[in-house]
Amino acid sequence: MVLNEKQRQTGADNFRDAVRISRRQMLSGAVAIPSAAAMYFGYEELKGEPVRAGLIGTGNQGCYAHIAQSNPAYVDIVAFSDIRPSNQARARQYFRDKYGPRADKVELYEDYKRMLERDDIEMIIIALPLFLHAPATIAALEAGKHVLCEKLMAGTVMECKQMVRAAARHKRFLSIGHQRHYSYMYANARSLIEQGVLGDIRHIRAFWHRNQTGNGAAGAEDGRFDSWYPPVPKEDAGVDFRKFGYDSIEQMIRWRVDPKTGGGLMVELGSHQLDACSIFLQAMGAAHAAEGAPAHHILPVAVHGTGLISYFKNDRKLPDHAFLTYEYGEDAHNAVVMYSSISTNAFDGYGEQVMGTRATLSLLQEAEAYIFQEGAGKDTRINWAEARVSRAMADSGSTRAWGAAVGVADTLTSRGYREEQEHLAWLIRSGKPADGPDQPRCNGLIGLNDAVVTLVSNLAMDVKKRLVFKPEWFDPASDAVPETDPDVTGKA
Questions:
Q1: How does pLDDT run across 449-470, given as a tens digit for each residue?
Q2: What's the rounded Cα separation, in Å, for the pair 9 and 379?
Q3: Helices (H), 360-443
Q4: Cα–Cα dist 85/75, whole Å
Q5: What's the CA dihedral at 132, 138, 141, 142 to 10 degrees?
Q6: Helical H runs in 244-403?
Q7: Neighbours of 200 (CB within 10 A)
Q8: Can you give the pLDDT at residue 168?
Q9: Is the N end or the C end of the chain the one with fewer CB atoms within 10 Å?
Q10: How would DSSP label each residue in 375-398?
Q11: How many angstroms separate the CA atoms of 473 and 86, rounded?
Q12: 3-36 confidence digits (pLDDT tens)
């Protein structure tokens, strides 16, 4: 969506106004609350000592999302593990920035299994390459630790199911790092959809567009400007890569673009948008549930698409461009989601454009939110109270709890990494049973759902045909998986 500065301001004002009005309608009166995050996400100030945690994997996500964004009042990272000296050094600096002088007491383990032997560690955060998620998660659960595992949950559907089963067997919490479940901005967007602000949604356009070509620099086809194809750091050249399951030092460094170790565009980027679309369509289901229809988790019924290596001429093994269409069923009013991820143009950036019968909602870069009413120009400010004042409020699990807040909380300050850690720590410290009703907002079952959709998307591009999702793929108790399904592989 191309907007001038005035239109951006108008759309942003419309979003903020709709959120403010929504909360005011929820509850009468204005009672101050101690924490908007705690009220919305179902936790409060931690009682007792911070949860002692170990971090496995200190690459980009481990350092930026899980060290830098952590809240020491909830989570105290006392140990970490990484096999790469370059990552170890970077993590040390992040710990110094976070903890100050006591950072040097954070113990380093090359073998994370030795870290799991520590009785004082309660929670493990896993930010490893995709193919290592399942073995590390299952080992941590078997050692009696609660786990926050980065998305995508695992590289195969069976591995995801094994992770869910291990969490149930050992009665430990399993949280998956789809952080939009903990984003204030997405929480507000969901609430507005539940209240009918957008009307009925029939189409969502989702995208993640990057330019990995040096803006068309000569020779860029060899990957020299591709952030997923970096050179081998000299300090990592001596790592015994075979010991840790890699075929080469280059595969260890460039794991995202190799199908053995990573999942490419759909796993690293597309899974975020697909997860967001599920949130939006589930919110629309909740809006109709207030009128008598049941609300439940919304999943697509079919997918087809194209993935290709269109630009790069190196040894990249996964697509650099992906285009997919997702069909939803009657529970989502037969909506269609169109997704694109490209590596040669960053004009659109990334986000979701949700198109309803009454208005369009655009969420960009996890930091900008705009609403524009159908039938009105993009320069038009809307009084959303007039549109909804006679509509009954849905009794949903979204931002109802925010209604007592004074003013409007800042929805743009957090992408959700801090909150997903905090919520898991609060569940652990509050003594909630891991097999009880209180669960992480993105628990193992939700992570499994997202993984099935993402991994089947890759399969659809590989086999070049429309694939219909089967219910048993989403069932952790079933051994049925798409990777070996004859309807997918064409093999009896």
A1: 999 999 999 999 999 999 999 9
A2: 9
A3: 384-388, 417-429
A4: 25
A5: -130
A6: 249-253, 264-265, 271-289, 384-388
A7: 14
A8: 98
A9: C
A10: TS-TT----HHHHHTTSPPP--SS
A11: 39
A12: 888 888 888 888 877 876 444 443 333 333 334 5
Q: Say how far apart CA 267 and CA 453 lie, in whole Å.
A: 10
List, in order, residues 6 or more apart from 24 with CB less than 8 Å away: 403
Question: CB neighbours of 165 closer than 8 A, spacing ≥ 6?
Answer: 476
Rounded Cα–Cα distance for residues 61 and 57 (Å): 8
Residue that the structure tokens 């170890």 belong to? 88
Strands 300-308 vs 467-468: parallel, antiparallel or unpaired? antiparallel
How far apart are alpha carbons 7 and 251 in whole angstroms?
45
Query: What is each CA distance from 119 to 114, 129, 414, 486, in whole angstroms?
Result: 11, 26, 32, 45
Contact between 410 and 426 under an 8 Å Cβ cutoff? The reply is: no
DSSP label of 443: B
Supply the pLDDT for residue 491: 86
The whole-angstrom separation of Cα 75 and Cα 43 is 14
- Is residue 335 within 8 A of residue 199, CB to CB? The reply is no
Can you give the three-state secondary structure of 442-478, one letter per residue? CEHHHHHHHHHHHHHHHHHHHHCCCEECCHHHHCCCC
Q: Could you identify the residue written with the tokens 């097999």?
A: 435
Q: How many CB atoms lie within 10 A of CB 34?
A: 9
Nearest partner of 420 among 64, 55, 75, 145, judged by Cα: 75
- Whether cis (ω within 30° of 0) applies to the bond prior to 152 is yes
For residues 445, 450, 455, 456, the Cα torsion angle rounded to the nearest 10 degrees is 100
The angle that helices 271-289 and 184-194 make with each other, rounded to 10 degrees, is 30
Percent helix, percent strand, percent coil in the chain, to nearest 5? 40, 15, 40
3-state secondary structure of 139: helix
The pair of structure tokens assigned to 204 is: 């969502």
Question: Which of 311, 320, 307 is CA-nearest to residue 220?
Answer: 311
367-424 pLDDT tens trace: 889 999 998 878 877 755 433 323 333 222 333 232 222 233 343 457 889 999 999 9
Rounded CA separation 492/299 (Å): 27
What six digits make up the tokens of 461?
Answer: 């591009």
How far apart are the C-alpha atoms of 394 and 67, rounded to whole Å? 38
Q: What is the number of other CB atoms lying within 10 angstroms of the CB of residue 286?
A: 24
Q: Give the type of residue at 215.
A: N
Helix (H, G, I), strand (E, B) or coil at 79: strand
**Which residue did the predictor score with more confidence, 185 or 465?**
465
Question: And the tokens for 164?
Answer: 């869910």
Sign of torsion, CA 343 345 346 347? negative
The span from the CA of 173 to the CA of 438, in Å, is 10
- Predicted confidence at residue 41, as pLDDT, reads 74
**Which one-letter DSSP state was computed for residue 331?**
G
